[in-house]
Predict the structure.
Amino acid sequence: MKKIGVVLSGAGVYDGAELHEAVLTLLAIDRAGATAVCMAPNIAQHHVMNHLSGQEEPGETRNVLVESARIARGDIQDLATVDAGSLDALVFPGGIGAVKNLCDFAIHGGDCKVDPDVEKLIQAVARAGKPIGAACIAPALIARVFKGEKQVELTIGNDPGTAEALTKFGARHTDCAVEDIVIDRQNKLVTTPAYMLAQRISEASTGIEKMIQAVIEMA
Amino acid sequence: MKKIGVVLSGAGVYDGAELHEAVLTLLAIDRAGATAVCMAPNIAQHHVMNHLSGQEEPGETRNVLVESARIARGDIQDLATVDAGSLDALVFPGGIGAVKNLCDFAIHGGDCKVDPDVEKLIQAVARAGKPIGAACIAPALIARVFKGEKQVELTIGNDPGTAEALTKFGARHTDCAVEDIVIDRQNKLVTTPAYMLAQRISEASTGIEKMIQAVIEMA
């Protein structure tokens, strides 16, 4: 059974992993006959957002690994302890956590930094020739990691500003419909817009299923 | 388009709504061409569980509506303000929140109390002849609401202790496989074991899809 690492970044679209994308990723992996290995960095969230009011909760702190454990039903590993050799592929659901917790692209754009353990794992998986998948805004993290190293082809849907920012990292951006995927066969990278474009959960689901299928085929 | 109320009870299997069941419920409703109307009571959670350690966080408090908003991407209503007349059906994903926040069956068993607004909504939906669906442990809440009023047929899988407790509420319990459902046509109630039995997310998904299809057919 192929082992697919799923990197979570909290539990909620506005400060962590987008919950629909994360759960649909786990479903697609299971339905494809592979095993999901959930992981997250053991770090503080950038912030805590009240998802009802849309406002930040200034006094509150939450931990990315602890909150991600809600999605994994407790079956989750500290990303820093995960050996790339134990995985056949690595996938990233979206949500603001991907660009505020795993890296800070949503805050610093072109000058963003990546969590060192996340960067190390992505690099190790890529060097081993194993595929990577990313949904929604998570391709921004991938583009940043490969900046100045190789030109990856990817999509975040069709938002011109975000696409241009990824181009500045050296990536090639391809517009993509919500239920479709962009496959970079040379770099074994599969991306899908998910909630960058989705108006309905079934649209996100279709794209994520295709992404997981393509990742597992290359694994 | 049929409107299916989805009652959430927080965001995490050990203190709120089970996230897989909640998201898969939303997916099944969308795929069936209906609209999900997310709601939750605006009350404090019974407690906050650290889903990594499995331990309670004694100093922490979270609000059921605010945490449920993470699942609904912010598009959620205070359950107390929802008019049963605006809905075609009502469904309950499982998770400990269903039996610690919506009612306290997990704490007081046969002597449990139901949140008054939750009870009022269930009664109003049932009186209007509209169907109700419940997954995992949530059928315990339904059994409690109809105690002494009518005999509903339902399932929580095959756990003898829980099944017996529901029988004491006057319900008829039918053992059920994880990917199947129990339909009480007279009372328009559909139940499925989900994570009371599921070892894999795809098993929970199959049962929940069937539950939603049956609920929508009766709506």
Remarks:
- DSSP finds eight helices and nine strands in chain B.
- The CA atoms of residues 161 and 177 of chain B lie 17 Å apart.
